[in-house]
Amino acid sequence: MNKGRLASLALVAALVSPTAMAAENRGDGGEMAQEIASVGPLYVLAGVRLWANQWDILHLTRTAFLANPADPSSLMFRDSINTATSSTRTVPIPFLGLRYGKFIGSVSYFPETAFDTDGALSEDVDRKELDVNFGYYVTPNVVVSLGYREGTQSKSTDLVENSELKARGLLIGTSFTAPISGPLSVYGNVAYGWLKLELDDGFQLPSGEDKLNGNYKVGEIGLSYNLSHLVGGSVLKGAALTVGYRIWVITERNIPLGTYSASNPVVPVAFSEEDARTTTDGFIIGAVAVF
Predict the structure, then answer these.
(1) CATH hierarchy code of domain 3-290
(2) Taking the model in full, what pTM does it have?
(3) Cβ atoms of 133 and 146 closer than 8 Å
């Protein structure tokens, strides 16, 4: 089968998965794309990916210190941002996509999953995400894309009862695929985005605000294997398997951190600002079918 078509599928599948658009770039190459092309300009992609990921969870703490170590009455409190590395969780990420001509759209869902904090917080932290992407084939092997992502982190501190953090943002990215040999291809994807974070009602930062700005960085690289020579038919036009490594990074900008007197540990007497980064990464495998 034509290698160009295999490459096409790789990119299609890549876009179907929001986070690593190329991850589903089924580098499977031209064969599948070729079969698809013979069916017409519109087709459906569906599949699932399994991500064995570990998460560095950001959380806010408040600790006591002596402003003057020689004076016990100088007790004060200050905020700090820390990370707790979770154990590895394997999360299934289903996705669905449509391609028409040089345009492709997809949606995927990271279902609510509990991550432990190794005792850093009083309970596990739940996380979920939704991704929607639209892409355009610049060449048969390269797609540029625009995406929307939203997600939640159920807990970000033990200082208040409700400390859910919501994130929303737009990303721009590119995916590529290149044949290696026969049905085997390499794929890759990078994306960058702008982020808005919103704190749960009742939880405010020392500055009095309940919103933060930040950015997304995501990427993935791996291999894909085209199965269309084994499963292609009148309904199922093709299929592919992928294995890769995926990383997802959020940087939260200018987080206000307060310093408090012992007599009033709620109202800050001063505050500073700090950037903080949270990372999720791990190996990912996937399967996609084309109808």
Answers:
(1) 2.40.128
(2) 0.86
(3) yes
